[in-house]
């Protein structure tokens, strides 16, 4: 799920300035809005859900939320619509990122936790390295809906695999 997020993030400012004709000031406000929503999600919502819902349900649910958010992203055409769809997208992403780190620490031996988290961070760095180039090609070939299509396809496949396998072994 990191690839669609990385690609969308890498191209976000350029695409939205061009597509939605945002001024630099409005783009800055949009990025601040995203930071605020992220802060609320990570500070309050992730903990609230984590205390009430199992890891397995949270994992599958967050993947489905993100996938559906990308599906709706394909047809957004206004700044208001984008701001609305970013709320569940950010929520699902925050849940998924937090849960991924938690799962890594639960399924590996204590002696391998640091290595596992390091490999996870290295994977994120790799995604951030290739995302701008991949995003440029997607935008050139498929246009704005291509970002939504990538996220929806990836999320749908991941959700299907998780549901068919019953989640991740060792996570309840």
Automatic annotation (TrEMBL):
Membrane topology label: Multi-pass membrane protein
Residue stretches spanning the membrane: 30-50, 62-91, 141-164
Keyword Membrane: yes
GO molecular function, one term: transmembrane transporter activity
Family annotation (InterPro entries): MFS, MFS_dom, MFS_trans_sf
Highest taxon listed in the record's lineage: Eukaryota
Keywords: Membrane, Transmembrane, Transmembrane helix
Subcellular location: Membrane
All residue ranges annotated as the Major facilitator superfamily (MFS) profile domain in the record: 1-172
GO cellular component annotations of the record: membrane; nuclear envelope
The protein's name: Solute carrier family 22 member 18
């Amino acid at each position: 799920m990191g690839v669609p997020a990385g690609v969308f993030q890498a191209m976000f400012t350029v695409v939205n300035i061009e597509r939605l004709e945002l001024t630099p000031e409005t783009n800055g406000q949009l990025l601040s809005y995203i930071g605020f929503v992220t802060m609320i999600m990570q500070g309050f919502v992730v903990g609230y859900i984590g205390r009430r819902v199992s890891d397995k349900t949270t994992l599958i649910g967050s993947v489905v939320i993100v996938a559906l958010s990308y599906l709706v992203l394909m047809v957004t055409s206004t700044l208001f619509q984008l701001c609305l769809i970013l709320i569940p997208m950010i929520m699902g992403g925050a849940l998924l990122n937090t849960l991924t780190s938690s799962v890594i620490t639960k399924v590996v031996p204590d002696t391998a936790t640091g290595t596992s988290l390091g490999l996870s961070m290295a994977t994120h760095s790799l995604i951030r390295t290739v995302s701008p180039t991949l995003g440029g090609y997607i935008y050139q070939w498929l246009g704005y809906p291509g970002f939504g299509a990538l996220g929806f396809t990836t999320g749908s496949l991941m959700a299907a695999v998780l549901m068919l396998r019953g989640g991740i072994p060792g996570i309840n």
